[in-house]
Amino acid sequence: MLLVGSGLFAHSLYNLQNLDPGLKTDHLISFTIDPSLSGYSQVRIRSLFQNLQEKLSILPGVRAVSLAKWPALTGSEPRMTIKVEGYRPQEGEAMSPVLNFVGQRYFSTMGIPLIAGREFTARDGTSSPKVVIINEKMSRHFFGGETPVGRYIGHAGVRDPIDIEIVGVVKDSKTITVRDEVAQCMYFPYWQDEGLDIMTFYARTTQRPEEVGPTLLRVVRELDPSPPVFALKSVQLQISESLFIDRMVVMLSLSFGLLATLLAAIGLYGVTVYSVVRRTREIGIRVALGATGSDVLRLVMREVALMTGLGVAIGLPAALALNQVARSWLFGLTPYDPLTLTIAPALLIFVTLLSGVVPARRATKVDPMVALRYE
Questions:
Q1: Do the beta carbons of residue 79 and residue 96 sit within 8 Å?
Q2: Distance (Å, rounded) from C-alpha 294 to C-alpha 275?
Q3: Rounded distance, CA 69 to CA 75, Å?
């Protein structure tokens, strides 16, 4: 019980310190705008998005600005079934990577490294050949060790051509939520989306969100006050909000872990005291026969060590099993974390010694004459 409690405590503390993955230097701020709610045509929507990106890019302290149809890390999981040039799918294989429509400089704005090919440019418009950028996971799955740049994919329809050229590969990153595994992803230029409506803008800035936020809104209103703008927040805050339940589980785990440790310490103390009381006559005889205080101390602590060994033998597998369950609840939880597996036994030994040393020291002071008359 003690090992399970202390292990849960240590794991909870570790995860509490690592639930804020975020930017360490620049700040990434996002807001969402939906011109379609104001009745804008596709031509007017495209013009608004282009002008807004240009206006925001020249603001002081703004390093990069881009936009995406589906915001990252919000649970959005749009998919498109595809076919790939030169690839024969296995029976029952899901050929449906996650997709998004994004703007120029999207990957540099989001901090996603480009590892092959190029990003989207102004040339990737409605009348240009269709292009796509994929992530490493999708590249490995469909092309193995070969370069996918210059290869083609297409919609899965039998009569649909394979006419979308892969022009770049980007590093894997989480797009759905921070808890989900990295998915196969493909990114299209938003100019080639036939139905533009809602869009999320991202701005990477050196200023704090509360400082630059009002400026971003002011630029939007000055350019066009009609479309509704909402969900202005930093990406770090968005991640924290998405991990609210995880934080609650961490705090509850931390509380229950401390409670389990406390109860185990009290129980161990009580058992040790009871054992000493039961053996009072035996201890008196040993002292009368010449046993020293250190001999009595070793006698009592030997039993404490035996209980500790049994606790480790039973509690360690239980703790590992519990951590496997908790892994599915908490972001970033590793069931075999060396730090936790070191802290938990150390905490167990400390509590064991602390709980056993008081009654053990009391046993060394037993008067042999009193002990021999004890019933």
A1: yes
A2: 17
A3: 13
DSSP H or E stretch at residue 62: strand 62-68
CA distances to 115, 266, 305, 315 from 272, rounded to whole Å, are 63, 10, 11, 19
Domains by residue range for the chain, with CATH: 2-17+244-372 (no CATH), 22-69+200-233 (3.30.70.100), 70-195 (no CATH)
Measuring CA to CA, how many Å separate 348 from each of 5, 116, 137, 358? 9, 51, 43, 16
Q: Tokens 């360690």 map to which residue? A: 316
- Mind giving me the DSSP string for 89-112? PPTT-----EEEEE-TTHHHHHT-
- 0.85 exceeded by the pTM? no
pLDDT digits (tens, 9 = 90+) for 108-129: 999 999 999 999 998 998 889 9
Backbone torsion region of residue 86, taken as left when φ is above 0, otherwise alpha when ψ lies between -120 and 50, otherwise beta: left
